[in-house]
Each structure stands twice: as C-alpha cells, then as structure tokens.
Design goal:
The complex is a heterodimer of chains A (about 170) and B (about 575).
Chain A: E1 7-16, H1 21-31, E2 38-45, E3 50-59, H2 61-72, E4 77-82, E5 89-100, H3 103-115, E6 119-123, E7 127-134, H4 136-146, E8 151-156, E9 160-163
Antiparallel strand pairs in A: 1-3, 1-4, 2-3, 5-7, 5-8, 5-9, 6-7
Chain B: E1 6-7, H1 8-18, E2 23-26, H2 33-40, E3 46-49, H3 53-67, E4 71-75, H4 79-83, H5 85-93, E5 98-104, H6 120-124, E6 130-133, H7 140-152, E7 159-164, H8 165-169, E8 171-172, H9 193-204, E9 209-213, H10 215-219, H11 222-235, E10 239-241, E11 256-259, H12 266-274, E12 277-281, H13 287-290, E13 301-306, E14 320-323, H14 326-339, H15 346-360, H16 376-387, E15 392-396, H17 400-408, E16 417-418, H18 429-439, E17 444-450, H19 451-454, H20 461-466, E18 472-477, H21 482-491, H22 507-514, E19 517-521, H23 524-536, E20 541-546, H24 580-583
Parallel strand pairs in B: 2-3, 2-4, 4-5, 5-7, 6-7, 9-10, 9-12, 10-11, 12-13, 13-14, 15-16, 15-17, 17-18, 18-20, 19-20
Antiparallel strand pairs in B: 1-8
Helix pairs in contact in B: 1-2, 1-7, 3-5, 3-18, 9-14, 11-14, 12-15, 16-17, 16-23
The chains are: A alpha+beta (about 170), B alpha/beta (about 575).
The complex binds flavin-adenine dinucleotide, thiamine diphosphate (TPP) and magnesium ion.
The site of magnesium ion has 8 residues of chain B, from helix 19.
C-alpha cells in the first residue's frame, strides 16, 4: 500500500440514534485495523434522533480517505465530516483530575489549577478533584504538571469538535 | 395502504410478496415456526428445503447471481443463524444481494442465554452489509422493505433481519413501503460529468489501452453489460476480465484477453503490466489480480469506475476515479465518445495488438494429453465442446478445478458463471447450482467440483433429488486438495501435510444412495460418452472423473511476484525463488 505521512484527523459522524450504531462504527475501526485515539458519542437532536460520534484517528491520507468512505457506506450514517480538512474547527475535551497531597504540594496544585482555569469540584482535607475543559494538548499539559503533585486518577471525555462559523455541517 | 391487523409472520410474507419474491431457501426450527405456518397458508412463494443453512445462503446466491434478483433465505435462531454465517460472508465478499431472515428467541428472553439463542446481529454485523433486530411488530413492514432496498442498492450485499418469535406472533398492520426513499442510504448511481470527461480524454490519447472489467459489470445487469460490450467494441481496445467478471464480455470475442491475475492468461497479465491507460470497470484491484502492488501496471494512468467510493484508492491509487453505476457511466462515456467523434491512435493501437498477439502466441494454457490418463484440462475441453451450443450455467467449488474451469470454459453472457471469488468457499458450488437450477429449470446447470470440496456440502444431493433438480456435478477427482498440494510443492519443499484426500467415498455408489445417478470416467476414451450420458440423463447426476493426480495449474503468478514474472509451467526456466515477503501472503 502507498506510503504517506501519518496524520491525526478529527472526524465527525452524524448517525441515527439506534441500537447497535456505535458497535457498527467501532467494529469498522477494529475490523479493518484503523486507529481510534478518542471517541465520543451522544444524542444531539432528540427530535430527529441523531447522535454525533466524534472520532479522532490517525493514518496516511489514503487510510483517512478509506475511513471516511467506509463510514459513509454504513446505513445509519447520515453525514461524515473531516474537521481537520474541511476548514477551521474547534476541539474541546473535559477532564476530571484527582490530586492527593498536603502542605506545599497541595498549595502548588491549586495555584496551577488557577493558571489553567481549572475548577475545584470536590475537596477533602487531603485531596482535590479539578475539572477543566480545553484542547487535548492543554489537558495533557495540566495532567503532566499534576503528576509530581500527587495525581492519583484521571477521567477524560475524549474530544468533541465542531466547525467554526455560521454553517452547520 | 394500511390494512386490517394480521400476525407479524403474515406481515413478513406479505412484504416478501410485494417485493416480488418467488422462492425462499430455508430450513425450519422453533423460532421460525410462525413464519413457516404463514408460508404453509399461502401459495405465491415457493420454499426450497435445503439440508444445511450454509447451503441455503449459497443457493440463494446462485439464484440471485443468475437472475439479478434478490435471493431470500429463512433460517431458525441459534444454530440456524450461525450455520448461515459462511454463506453471508461469501455473499458480502462477492457483492451478492441476499435477504436472510433469522428467527430469534422472544424479545423478553433476549440476553438470557435462552434455548437456541445467539447474538445474531452481533455475530453477523461484520459479515453483512447491514442487519436489523425487529423488536416490535410496528417496525416489521418498514424493516423488511428497507432490507430489500439496502441489499440491492449501490454495491449489493447480504442483509440479515432477526425476528424474535413473539414479534412474528403479535398482530399488527401491514403497510407497503416498497420503493420508498430511505432517510439516509441512497447511493448515487450517476457519475460526475467532469470525471467521465477526464476518463474519455485519457482513453482518447491512449497508445496501449486495456479494459479491466469485473463483477460490478455483472451486478449492473445484462442491459448495462451489453452497453459496455458495445462500447468496448467501438473503441477496439483489448479487454481482460476478473474471475468475477467472466461473461461480462464475450469470451470468444477477439478483443477478449480472458482472465487476468494469479492464474490468468499470459497475454492478459503482460498487457496489464505494459498498458499505458487502464480502464477498470467494476473491479476492485483484488490481490489475486494485482500481484505485487508496487510493480502493478507501473507505467499506466488508471481510470476506476465503481459504485462504492470505498473501493477506490483502497489498494491502488488511481488517476481518474468515477463513482457511479456501470450502466449510467458507460452510457455517458459512449455519448461523449460519439459526440467528440473520437478516433484512437490507429497506428499505436495496431502496434499494441501486434504485441498482444505475440503474447497470445505463447499459448499459455498448453498442456500435454498423452496416454489414457485424463488431464483435468482435457476433461474441461471435452465438457465445453459438449455444452457450448446449449444454454448452460456453471458453478464451481474452490481449488485447481475452479481455476481450470475459469481458463477452459468460455462465457458469452453475464450471469452464467457462479463461483466463490472473494471468500473462496469450498462447498459453494453444489448449493449454488441448486439455486441456479431453481431459477432456470430447463437449462443445463453444472457444478465443476473437486473431490475434496464436494464433500463439504454433499448433503445437498438430497435437495436436488427432492425437487427433481437435474444439476450435474462434474468432479475432477485428483485425489488431492490439489490447490493446497500445489502451494506445498511451490512453497514448502513438497511436504504434503494433510492434503491427500484419503478414504474417499465411491461417488457412483454415493449418488445411488441419494437417489441420483452416478457415472465414472477413468480413461480418455470414456470421457465423451460419459459426458453425453450426463447431459442426457433427466435427473441429477454425479460424474466422477479420475484425472491426473499430479497436474498443477498454470500459468501462475507466485505470491509476491509481479505480472511479468509469471510462470508458464513446471519447467519454466524463469522461475525465481519466492521472496520472504511472498511467503507470508495467502
Ligand atoms: C483459488 C482462487 C484463485 C483466484 N484467482 C484469481 C485470478 O487469478 N484472477 C482473478 O481475477 N480473480 C481470482 N480469484 C478471485 C479473487 O479473489 C476476487 O474475488 C476477484 O478478483 C474479484 O473480482 P472483481 O475485482 O471483479 O470484484 P468483485 O468482488 O466482483 O467486486 C465488484 C466491484 O464492483 C463494484 N460494483 C458493484 N456493483 C456495481 C455497479 N452496479 N456499478 C459499478 N460498480 C459496481 C463493487 O463496489 C466492487 O468494487 C481467485 C479466487 C480463488 C478462490
Ligand atoms: C471452506 C474452505 N476450507 C479450506 C479451504 C482452503 N482450500 C482451498 S483449495 C483447497 C483444496 C480443494 O481441493 P479439491 O476440492 O479437491 O480441489 P482441487 O484443488 O483438487 O481441484 C483447500 C483445502 C477453502 N478454500 N475453503
Ligand atoms: Mg482435488
């Protein structure tokens, strides 16, 4: 198969919200050996019963083209958009970070959270849970900084994304 | 169009009738008893009782491929559904339209490990084009009609509808949804005009053009196929076919180079290697065809016409993709070609044909028939001579005999050649022939078989006898899994691990036991007489042809090699050792 540079793409898939639709999408990725770096899914239109699946994947341009074409031929799929290619877009992710510590480290974690605009959503005498939204990179940076300060657990949503501007995709 | 409430099972049967279904291939069981009861009470749809659910699907495939209609299958839950999986996968790989109805345990027991429960939609998700679990009788009419829409639209493929028993037994209203537009799945058939223009521009300037046509042409139907044949003749370009495309262009036309690929013709593969413009119509650059991709038609510009965008740029990058149905695309190509009054470069084209005729001169299918031991190729040549003026349909099993059949039998029309190409399913041929014979009761239907493959669905002889279907099974009995032995010879130092067909049954007695006719030919001198008898006998016949055990199938492109490295025969001096890269390929 043709070589080419492996690139990261964010693909937005509008699907019927019906039983098994997520299994079809995931099965397609695992069955054909495509990468999933992140995947999110939720209903976005409860009248039309549409869900949006946002997949972050990586591959050569030929593989990315394949992924999109394979997704498009699934019966419950209405639209497939490559947010990485089709104009500017926004990506956000939410993370909950639990940090355990006391003294200087505890104070330092609060200070950094402040800089990152993370919110404290739970606290005990020995711990915090921070909530933060942002790009994947920003979340990674925050998590890395929390590592030496007593990070014990991370839970993140995966990427959701949308195109910039007035148009709907 | 809504009517009085009727049982779910009756709704299903009504929907089938409204879809024009005439025959169902199936096997009953607890979870489909209501449906069998509804079938019992009507007389518009005929049911063919097979002897194994895999065979039901292959029979429906044979029926579908030889008529262009949708094949319909009905099986019970659990083992009925799991037995159908190989057939479904086969139909998926070869783009055959099948609707398979499976019984399911009642909705309130789903997930309980109930008796004969299997997660049918889970199991069949990767081996169907689409599948449904119908949880309410209110969804029945729409779902059955939608299944037919999905299976035949765009690139055809099998669709499973899983039907819990309580849904079959609940009353509901039937609505005819036939012909309705689907909310999301409506694959376009008309091509982009500019892409067709670009394709014609490339073709007009070609010096060494080649049509490479495949199963997609057959899928597009006989009218589209005829249009393509006319167009190819108008251009005067050579045309090679894939295994799935045999019959899409008349095999005896001088423009035909025959099959290409691993066991394809020398002239077809060399033409592929040397062409400057390749026009792929409804073929999918399968690895059996391309050989080593990096050395595949290295100096060509490639046009690819396919209804499925995911077939394009999958294995081979092309220059002009044209997404659309063969019929619509060729119509447009023909129109532009004529409107522009395109005259291809006559001098270049005649030099190209001169070269092609030199390759033809190598006579790549040459074999030596001396003595009384029947060469498999000879048996097929004699079979072809006896059948060629009749209305014949051929199915095959999988192995050397399949390749020899592709090489030595010619097809002038589409839909007359049924073989398992993509999955390569041994056991396909006999049930497929059953389906073909059901659709064409008065035609000569022959399953060209190997002695190992035929054992995989031999029980279907019972089906033939029950419905008096006069299918002929022509076994090229070499007492080996010949194709396996050939690879072991080539790749594994002649260590013939488990590839000998030991303890074979006496096929003549076996035919007799089933109530069919059995014949045997062991010498060349017996062959013509036996073939004549086989054709003359009114019922199903098994012919056991004892052929040379050691014959191998040539030409052959060894795995991992390029088209211009093909071997012509066992003594071919150009043979190179197989690369490590080639050793891992299938
Ligand atoms: C033992 C063995 C050996 C084999 N050796 C060879 C060999 O030497 N040579 C060979 O050719 N094959 C060989 N095969 C078969 C091979 O594995 C493939 O099945 C075959 O090459 C595929 O044929 P195809 O490209 O025509 O595609 P198909 O599988 O027939 O696919 C059809 C293509 O057409 C498209 N299509 C469908 N409908 C339409 C439409 N209406 N309009 C436009 N496009 C449409 C589909 O999207 C698809 O891309 C062998 C198989 C076996 C078991
Ligand atoms: C269901 C299945 N199992 C295994 C194979 C692998 N296989 C391919 S050809 C072949 C041997 C076929 O032998 P036979 O039917 O006698 O045909 P021959 O090659 O001798 O003509 C085998 C085992 C297959 N294609 N299908
Ligand atoms: Mg054999």
């Amino acid at each position: 198969m043709e070589q080419g540079k492996v690139q990261r793409h964010t693909i937005s898939v509008l699907v019927d919200n019906e039983a098994g639709v997520l299994a079809r999408v995931i099965g397609l990725f695992s069955g054909r050996g495509y990468n999933i770096e992140s995947l999110t899914v939720a209903e976005v239109d409860n009248q039309a019963h549409f869900s949006r699946i946002t997949v972050v994947t990586s591959g050569t341009p030929m593989i990315i083209e394949q992924i999109k074409n394979q997704l498009r031929r699934l019966v419950p799929v209405h639209r497939v958009t490559d947010l990485t290619l089709d104009g500017p877009s926004l990506e956000r992710e939410l993370v909950l970070v639990k940090v355990h510590g006391s003294g200087e480290k505890r104070v330092e974690s609060l200070r950094i959270a402040d800089i990152f605009r993370a919110r404290v959503v739970d606290s005990t005498i020995e711990s915090f849970v921070f909530e933060m939204t942002g790009s994947t990179e920003k979340l990674n940076a925050f998590i890395n900084l929390m590592q030496p300060l007593g990070l014990v657990e991370v839970s993140r949503t995966g990427v959701v994304a949308i195109a910039r501007g007035a148009e709907a995709i | 169009m809504a009517s009085e409430p009727i049982l779910g099972a009756e709704i299903i049967v009504k929907a089938l009738i409204d879809q024009g279904v005439e025959v169902i291939f199936g096997y009953p069981g607890g979870a489909v008893l209501p449906l069998y009861d509804a079938l019992f009470k009507q007389n518009q749809i005929k049911h063919i009782l097979v002897r194994h659910e895999q065979a039901a699907v292959h029979a429906a495939e044979g029926y579908a491929r030889s008529t262009g209609k949708v094949g319909v299958v009905l099986v019970t839950s659990g083992p009925g559904a799991t037995n159908a999986v190989t057939g479904l996968t086969d139909a998926l790989m070869d783009s055959i339209p099948i609707v398979c109805l499976t019984g399911q345990v009642p909705t309130h027991l789903i997930g309980n490990d109930a008796f004969q429960e299997a997660d049918t939609t889970g199991i069949t998700r990767p081996c169907t084009k689409h599948n449904y679990l119908v949880k309410s009788v209110d969804d029945l009419s729409r779902t059955i009609h939608e299944a037919f829409h999905v299976t035949r639209s765009g690139r055809p493929g099998p669709v499973v509808v899983d039907l819990p028993k309580d849904v079959q037994q609940t009353s509901g209203t039937y609505t005819n949804h036939a012909g309705e537009r689907h909310r999301s799945y409506n694959p376009p058939v008309k091509p982009d005009r500019q892409q067709v223009e670009a394709a014609i521009a490339l073709m007009a300037g070609a010096k060494k053009p080649l049509f490479y046509i495949g199963g997609g042409v057959v899928n597009s139907g006989p009218a589209a196929t005829q249009l393509l044949v006319d167009f190819i003749r108008l251009t005067g370009f050579p045309c090679t076919q894939t295994l799935m495309g045999l019959g899409a262009f008349p095999g005896s036309d001088p423009l035909s180079l025959g099959m290409l690929g691993m066991h394809g013709m020398y002239e077809a593969n060399w033409a592929m290697h040397d062409c400057d413009v390749m026009i792929n119509i409804g073929a999918r650059f399968d690895d059996r065809v391309t050989g080593k991709v990096s050395a595949f038609a290295p100096n060509s510009k490639k046009i690819h016409v396919d209804i499925d965008p995911s077939s394009i740029n999958k294995n081979v990058r092309v220059d002009v993709p044209v997404v659309g149905d063969v019929g619509h695309v060729v119509e447009e190509m023909m129109r532009i070609w004529k409107a522009r009054q395109i005259r291809p470069d006559a001098k270049a084209l005649s030099a190209w044909w001169e070269q092609i005729n030199k390759w033809r001169g190598r006579d790549c299918l040459k074999y030596k028939q001396d003595g009384e031991i029947i060469k498999p190729q000879y048996a097929l040549e004699r079979l072809y001579a006896a059948m060629k003026d009749r209305d014949y349909y051929i199915t095959t099993e999988v192995g050397q005999h399949q390749m020899w059949a592709a090489q030595f039998l010619k097809f002038e029309k589409p839909q007359h050649w049924m073989t398992s190409g993509g999955l390569g399913t041994m056991g396909y041929g006999l049930p497929a022939a059953t389906g073909v014979q059901v659709a064409h009761p008065d035609s000569l239907v022959i399953d060209v078989a190997g002695e190992a493959s035929i054992m995989m669905n031999i029980q279907e002889l019972s089906t033939l006898v029950q419905y008096r279907l006069p299918v002929k099974v022509f076994i090229l009995n070499n007492r080996w899994m010949g194709m396996v032995r050939q690879w072991q010879e080539l790749l594994h130092g002649g260590r013939y691990s488990e590839s000998y067909s030991d303890a074979l049954p006496d096929f003549v007695k076996l035919a007799d036991a089933f109530g069919a006719h059995g014949l045997r030919a062991t010498k060349t001198s017996e062959l013509d007489g036996i073939i004549k008898q086989m054709i003359d006998i009114k019922g199903p016949v098994i012919v056991d042809v004892a052929v040379d055990e050691k014959e191998n199938c040539f030409p052959m492109i060894p795995s991992g090699a390029a088209h211009n490295e093909m071997l012509l025969g066992p003594e071919d001096q150009s043979a190179k050792p197989i690369s490590e890269e080639g050793m891992v390929l299938v």
